[in-house]
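> tool_call: predict_assembly(chains=two)
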Amino acid sequence: MKSTQIRLAARPEGEPKDSDFDFATVDLPELDSGQVLLRVLYLSLDPYMRGRMSSAKSYAAPVELGDVMVGATVCEVIESRADSLAPGDVVLSYSGWQSHAVASARHVRKLDPESAPISTALGVLGMPGFTAYGGLLEIGRPQPGETVVVAAATGPVGSAVGQIARIKGARAVGIAGGPDKCRALLDEFGFDAAVDHRAPDFAERLAEAVPDGIDVYFENVGGKVAEAVTPLLNRFARIPVCGLVAQYNATELPEGPDRLPGFMRQILTLSLTVRGFIQDEFIPTRQADFLRDMSGWIRGGSVRYREDVVAGLENAPEAFRAMLAGRNFGKALIRVGD
Amino acid sequence: MKSTQIRLAARPEGEPKDSDFDFATVDLPELDSGQVLLRVLYLSLDPYMRGRMSSAKSYAAPVELGDVMVGATVCEVIESRADSLAPGDVVLSYSGWQSHAVASARHVRKLDPESAPISTALGVLGMPGFTAYGGLLEIGRPQPGETVVVAAATGPVGSAVGQIARIKGARAVGIAGGPDKCRALLDEFGFDAAVDHRAPDFAERLAEAVPDGIDVYFENVGGKVAEAVTPLLNRFARIPVCGLVAQYNATELPEGPDRLPGFMRQILTLSLTVRGFIQDEFIPTRQADFLRDMSGWIRGGSVRYREDVVAGLENAPEAFRAMLAGRNFGKALIRVGD
């Protein structure tokens, strides 16, 4: 069996270019006992992948040059040498940017296609949904009547943050790029207010949308959104930090003035909590609750989700660039195989 | 009865000048029922006072121009119209930079001169000691074997932070200015290591002093100390922020590059917790524990303290400048009356 792979060819400077990737078709090895042969159905594209393309120190090792780009996938088992899985089973895997893969059965999780669409294991019921749930409930801890602000709000993390905030009785204010996304925040996801970060008077509009200030800012973008949010924070506000997508493609140190002393002063005078996290730290304590709560909320209609599916593995580099730039509308997925 | 007062005459630009204060002698009003007449024995000088001299938004209102500078004091009651207090009693008050004051008996706390030297109510057994205790135990949460770093480490907050860290089984690394203070950290306060921030190779020495990285950085200074600490932080490190004395006299925005995006990235990739606090938020839950624990530790010899007493209210402005610049050696106090 052959696999078509997208490998990291060069460490991107700024936005990843086509030449930072190369395509190859390789023969997969024969299955060992306990292994399964997978055909990839969906590949998830997520902002953290930009970090893996870089050699800068981070919470996870970078992808080595020449290696297949990492990524979560939903796959069909097409051959099995493991008792727990049979051909036709659908599993969550971490097989990366390729069409087929060999994996240990112990490293995949079987999905139930009856209980939810299989693609949701990469989005609202997967890592992005759990990032929203864990970060908001463990760090943000929204109280009834408080105001929660999140950007990239039609994305898989942001849309879940806003909807969970409302379930907890808080007011949800979403930030997104362009009128279509802002309309979806109000009509589709039930946010209390939506603010377009492309508007020339964005900072003023955000201030108007949070008349009582901001108690929780769920930080997944950084950049100019964070700059507009900061003056509006209330005393004891909490800032879970799960991503900084606006700065992932930065190639040089940002110009001055140095805003760090001012931000530290604000942390001090407002007794702010700023807390970075990776969702996996909450798995032991929260994942079971998450799967139960989120499945129930989806069934009950209180959490909706949107997917942005691009067909064809070969389109992954361009779809990835589009996602970093906010040109996707919903969870970015590549439909790899039918 | 007359009181000699130091009033705020102008909002300081940078380091407070003599001309930012003026001296006056005023007649105090007759006592109302429930009030006491106080003779100030000790005035506490603390970095937060620099914030009160400024009109910038903060957690407390600024001192108005023409008003007596605020501050905690230990006083003798010389006349009383309150049942709870008699002449000769010693109390903790908040009567500010003056020699005498009228206060409501309900707004002062009677001290027991037998149980501890009365000046400690302004230091190790007062607000600075409680800042160390509350911030370290509620936010820093040092675990046995972890490394705790604190600057201004011979000061009333820093010395308590290091000693409490050791009581909790952590390794305490203190930063101070000059060899005398560093020696005191090791010989007097029992820190595991001391680093002189005036050394030209300060950053390298700090790195050597924390071979296992930093788990808790108790932030009370900011500036170049924070800059040297940041690259040494471990995953899940905690940073309680109680002060930023190095930047209190700053008059303009610091030059670039803008370090905020880099710090946010570090918060994200290391899952850091940065949490500003004012000690009073912990009073309801922790103050009783603090008074019991700290008194016991002082009696048992596991917590020591050092005071830097300057005689004469007229020297308060210069002593305050000296404290902001780190020229004091221990808790800064003005001996106002004998």
